[in-house]
C-alpha cells in the first residue's frame, strides 16, 4: 500500500497506541487505521483519565486540501471535521472502513478526548454540530468587529441567558421595541 498523501511512499506496519496497529508512512507520519482494529482496541482499552490527557493546544496544519485516495481500494475518501476549533479533518473510506490520520492527528484526538469516540466524528450529527459551532463563532467575530469586545461579551451573556428562558419571546419583543 502506498501513502495517499505522499503517493510514492510504501506504508509500513506500526502502532499509534499500544495494541492499535496501523499502516504508517515514514515520510509524512500519517497512518491508515482500520476501524475494525480500532473498534477492537477501543473495547479492550478504557478511555484515558482526563488527568492523563494530552495538551489540548495540539494543532496539526498539514491536512491535505484535496480528497485522498484510499490506500487499500483507491476510492476517494470523505473528509470529516474533528472540531470547530481545529482545521483538521479525518479522511474516511466508506468502502473499506479505513481512516487516514495525518501526522499528529491521533495526538489531537487524544487531547480532545475523542480517541475512544472516533466513530462519532463520522456521523451527520457530529458534523452538523461542528458546522453550527463554526457558524456561531463567525457571528461572534463579526459582532466584535462591529461593536467591540466588551459589548460582544455582554451580548453573548444575554443570548445565553435568553436561550432557555421560558419568557424569551416577550423579552426579545421588549428589547426590539423602542
Tertiary shape: elongated
The chain-level structural class is alpha+beta
Count of domains:
2
Helix content: 25-40%
Give the overall average pLDDT.
90
Major β-sheet, in short? 6 strands, antiparallel
- Termini, distance in Å? 67 Å
- Beta-strand content: 15-25%
Number of helices: 6
Radius of gyration: 21 Å
Spatial strand arrangement across the major sheet: 1-2-3-6-5-4
- Counting DSSP E segments of at least 2 residues, the number of strands comes to 6
Low-confidence stretches: 50-56
Give me the strand/helix succession.
Answer: EEEHEEEHHHHH
Brief summary of the model shown:
Helix content is 39%, strand content 16%. The protein is α+β, with helices and mostly antiparallel strands and 178 residues long.
Features:
2 domains; 16% strand; alpha+beta; six-stranded antiparallel β-sheet
Provide the fold topology.
Blueprint: E1 12-17, E2 20-24, E3 31-34, H1 35-44, E4 78-81, E5 89-93, E6 98-101, H2 105-111, H3 118-121, H4 124-147, H5 149-163, H6 168-176
Antiparallel strand pairs: 1-2, 2-3, 3-6, 4-5, 5-6
Helix pairs in contact: 4-5
Question: How would you portray this structure in words?
Answer:
With 178 residues, the protein is an alpha+beta fold. The chain has two domains: 12-127, no CATH class; 148-176. Helix content is 39%, strand content 16%. It has six helices and six strands, in the order E-E-E-H-E-E-E-H-H-H-H-H. A six-stranded antiparallel sheet has the order 1-2-3-6-5-4. Strand 2 and strand 3 (31-34) form a beta hairpin. Helix 4 packs across helix 5 (149-163). The longest helix has 24 residues, at 124-147. The radius of gyration is 21 Å and the shape is elongated. It starts with 11 loop residues before the first strand and ends with a helix. The model is unreliable at 50-56 (pLDDT under 50).
